[in-house]
Amino acid sequence: MNRAYQETWVKNLYLQNKCRKWMSKKLLTEAQFERICSQFPHQFYLPNLFVRIGLFLFASVSGSFFVSFIALLFGMESGNSFIIPSIISGIGFFVSLEFMIREKKLYHSGADNALLYAGLVSFFVPLVILFENRLEVWQYCLAALILLIPACYRYADSFLALCLLAVWYTLVMSLMMKSVTGRMLLPFAMVGMSAALYLLVSKICDIYYRQSRILLEFILLLLIYLSGNYYVVREANALINDIGGSESPQIDFAIVFYAFTLIIPALYIFLGLKQKNRILLIAGLLALAFSGFTFYYYTDFLSASQATALSGVLMIGISALCIHYLKQPRYGIADHPEEDSSAYLHIQTILASEVLSDVPAHDNFRFGGSGEFSGGGSAGEY
Amino acid sequence: MSTYNSGSMSSNDILDQLRSKQIISDQHSETISDFLDSRPFSLYHELRSILYLGILLFTSGVGVIVYDNIDSIGHQVIISILAILCILLLGHSVKHRSPFSWLKTIPQSKLADYSLLLGCSLFLILEGYLQYQYELFGTRFGLAVAIPTLLFFLLAYRFDHIGVLSMALTGLASWLGLTIAPTSVVRGNDFTSESLLITAIVLGLALAVAGKVSEIKQLKSRFSFTYLLFGANLASAAALAGLFNHTVWFVYFIISIALSYYLIQTARKEQSAVFLVMGVIYGYVAISYALFYLTPDIMVGLLGIFYMLASSAGTLIFLLNFRKILGTKR
């Protein structure tokens, strides 16, 4: 089976993007860039993020009505009779997906993503209906893997890659949970497996899978950390062994997990800065934040609001100091704005209106700490 | 060429490619390669994200702490510290200000924008607390909201700060009893009350006009995006709510369609995809609802699936070809 998107175009697109960055840094002239675009052409339809979201939404809506239309044609009385319409719509989705990629030159443009997911779900649903609850979790996982692996290979979709990873972890975990030794070794096995997978995934240097690779690397780094994080291990241990009570009991080898929780964020951040690897750095920052939470959770000299304010002070202080310190680049690290940051500005605008401006309300004169704080995390742009 | 076929593409591979097509000379390639090797690793976005998140966390935490400690001794201390902090932060922004201009200005210090934002948030907390504890404005709640709103508008224009402008817009909306933040326009507002709904439409339209004016007159034209985003979103959501709930639905229908048309036109001129998608989604919901409303009940079930299938596929085709249809470049 081949890859769905024109490989040469994928490469040329990457090359053009790289050269555009170089041009914005005045490394290439505009005339040179134009020659590059004509020598390394691509014809992909690449709309803006918001149009892609729109395409995804409308493709999902028309997809779901397509299914109900097919189901209506076949008359749907009981669960089993849904199998045939589902398979037919699955075929329909894949045919239109292939058609759109070829004719409309889509490349992860929203509509093709929606059709791909709809097609896969349409093929998986009959399986669930057919076996009802007679199969075990790992058997469903196996079936899902058989669908997902070729789909990931052909379409290189990052979300599917993530699903593949999730299914694989569910499979391994459900098998290990069957035995007592398995349960005991679970955290160690998870750390080991995540690390092995990370090393494996980071070897994929094919541009065709670049987006999937970046996402998987990031998630795997987080999984390595979370599998050995003290909070996760202790709470999961209580959950798995079904120990009730208000507080989860202390775990064996606690000192190992303390150390892990402490060392991994520092290691990630250090390596990220040293190797100029942004994925490692951001994973490290998130890990650091979660280590802070872990520490806060098992100690009780701060209330929730005090901890929030204190962490805010620390973050403001450290970042302000770094910005001040990095006025001149030091040790190969700098604080220069990169290219166009308008998207980033718009995000700030929206956040300011969402969180900061809880203006005194009329009836109940109290604001702040509405608790509805969904921190975006320090999401960087790769 | 061998590296090109294996699929891996480092910067050096790309330079080889460019050299082989004789787009750049060997020497030029070396210059680029040297630059890339010696280029420092920029933490610009990471540091600003942490700073921004820190401001959000700090204000959320302090907002609660102030009320938690209302009867304790430490409480006066907290308030004094907040007041001093607020003055220091705003003072920092003032000290590093650029001369006023209707065009974009760049502050003299990298942190001035952030100290202004944090200063404004702390001002809100302080003012709210003073009203709560000492009833500074008595029962004139309107005044309590109007003062920060006015102040924020002034600061936003003086210091050219979009974040503070959006805080001012939020204040203005809440002065009228409305929520304006893009993600909570629908669930944050009670549009069953028709007077509130009309207020929302009027405010939304006024903001959209303000955006247009600032763009035409070149008065902080970069603010026009914020004005139109907030205004059009509020007015469109309110008009749709009117279409769903109220008897004079036809009026609201016309308003919805006019707004969608205006958004798509703006998108066409400004090459802005946000407004395009907003216009398409709001317009699609309005037209679909009106059609179903007019169709007799017996036909709805039958027509429904066909209509939804055809119309959503039609919208899809529009979005796939909008550059050709609207004649835009992007």
Automatic annotation (TrEMBL), chain A:
Parts of the chain that traverse the membrane: 49-76, 82-101, 113-131, 137-153, 160-178, 184-202, 214-233, 253-273, 280-298, 304-326
UniProtKB keywords: Membrane, Transmembrane, Transmembrane helix
Top-level division of the source organism's lineage: Bacteria
Give the protein name, as stated in the record: DUF2157 domain-containing protein
According to its UniProt entry, this protein's organism is: Dyadobacter luteus
